[in-house]
Amino acid sequence: MKTTFAETWTKLMMCAAVAMGLTAGASASCGDSLAAMAAGKAIVPSAVGKQLAAASTTDRISISSIVGLWDIQFIVEGQTIQEAFQNWNFGGTEVHNPNVDPRSGNIRLGTWLPISGGGFKLAHRVWNFDTNGNFLGTIHLSETVYLGDRGHSQTGSLNLDFYDPSGNFQNEVAGNVTGQRIRVE
Description:
Blueprint: H1 2-38, H2 47-53, E1 68-76, E2 79-88, E3 93-98, E4 108-115, E5 119-129, E6 135-148, E7 153-163, E8 169-181
Antiparallel strand pairs: 1-2, 1-8, 2-3, 3-4, 4-5, 5-6, 6-7, 7-8
């Protein structure tokens, strides 16, 4: 009996260690991506968005919930600086998979709430590192979005707030977010 308990406990601890390692890797690279976005260095084409726009337009279902999978674009000063898949989940969590090199970690996590007026507020907190692995502080990504097109599109605003390692505010980059719901074909 003791051997079974010890083996189970060891497996559980190994899974926890792997999960923490994966989370740390994802967090470290997100700052690089968002910092590059804010600096206008990460301009990406919207190939997926063009594919989604060509999808069937005969779907007449109206959806009032943000829950689901989305193709979104971050736009700053008229430039798309990042495209991502976002999965808004029941219970107020969100998974963000941006179009960045997956070797540096490309999964981010967020939390969201419905707000008055039928909108949704999303928050990410990101550890920010430079390409040499030096800690630069944190980035607070916030989005406020509203549904359109019978629940199949979203539009809204985004803010990237940069903080130094001591938590002092450095600067803010504001922009817009647009998105299209990914539908089952």
